[in-house]
Amino acid sequence: MPSSVVDSIIESTCDPPNRFYRYPAARALLPILGRIPWLTPNHVTYTHIAFGLAAALLVAFTEGRGWLVLAFVLCEVRMILDCFDGVLARARGTSSPFGRALDEIADSIAFITLACAMTYRLSLGTPGVVLVCTMLACGGLCANAWDFYKRKLTFALREGKDGVLDEIRHKKALIESGEGTFLGYWGVYFDCFQVLLYEVRPKDADAVSVIRARANDPQFRRFASLLSFVSFDNGLGILHVGALTGLFLEAEVFALGYAVFMWTSTMILARMVLRTYPSPESRRNERTP
């Protein structure tokens, strides 16, 4: 399979804000920050946690337009650094399942604290608590779905293997050898939850062969593009705009509706696309100039 085709499919799964300006900004930082020998991807992750917490504190406890603008800027800088820790890890060849688990925890902290800060400012009492909890749950499902299918497609297309299951086996082996950490246990739990909820078992083949067979199928391409919108970085973007404008309630309600629609659409299309090989008609269409 041509690498250009694979790269095109994988790139299409990245959400638009990350694809068009956050990752380019993160790559631009690499020649500068990448030269610092003691700076590790985990250091960058801890830093963007701090930016996210600072933004949430500003939203919750400060008054005035200027503070909200600053909170928005901190949120967007955090997102760029969230991209940069992965860029740095790949550039140095230090990517690991445990680093990914730490990044997932960091993203969860940023999402939860910002949503709670906005709800605190609304002072809605019990209805506000119900709203934020529901939005957090639905946003978390979107993030889980995107992470699972993105990794599934990436490993299958680039390496011809089921990288999700391989990572679970690797983490379990480390834990059983006595080298497990909190992040290791979290990573196993998180990955097993994803497999139980999102794994699509093909009727007549294994998942990797179906993904590779469908690489040029238009329906598969639409599914890959849909993943870019189920990523809840889009939902965080909605909350960022809400923090900037002071429209906290409107942003949370819109983010909730967005999450429900995108997660449901992804679950339906995943089962339509990943359960069987492409039809003979589809394969003929691929060969027709």
Question: How would you sum up this structure, described in words?
Answer:
It is a single chain. The protein has 289 residues and is mainly alpha-helical. It has a single domain, classed as Up-down Bundle (Four Helix Bundle (Hemerythrin (Met), subunit A)). The chain is 81% helix and 0% strand. It is built from 13 helices and no strands. It has helices spanning 3-12, 16-33, 41-61, 65-92, 97-122, 126-159, 163-176, 182-198, 207-213, 218-230, 233-245, 248-273, 280-287. Helix 4 runs antiparallel to helix 11 (233-245). The longest helix is centred in the middle third of the chain and has 34 residues, at 126-159. It is globular.
> Which CATH C-level class is it?
Mainly Alpha
Percent helix: over 70%
According to CATH, the fold-level topology is Four Helix Bundle (Hemerythrin (Met), subunit A)
In this structure, how is the largest beta sheet organized? none
Distance between the termini: 18 Å
- Structural class estimated from helices and strands: mainly alpha
State the CATH superfamily name: CDP-alcohol phosphotransferase transmembrane (TM) domain
Integer count of domains = 1
Q: Count the beta strands.
A: 0
Strand content: under 5%
- Contiguous uncertain segments of 5+ residues: 285-289
Principal-axis shape: globular
What is the topological layout?
Blueprint: H1 3-12, H2 16-33, H3 41-61, H4 65-92, H5 97-122, H6 126-159, H7 163-176, H8 182-198, H9 207-213, H10 218-230, H11 233-245, H12 248-273, H13 280-287
Helix pairs in contact: 2-4, 3-4, 3-5, 4-11, 5-6, 5-8, 6-8, 6-9, 6-10, 6-12, 7-8, 10-12, 11-12
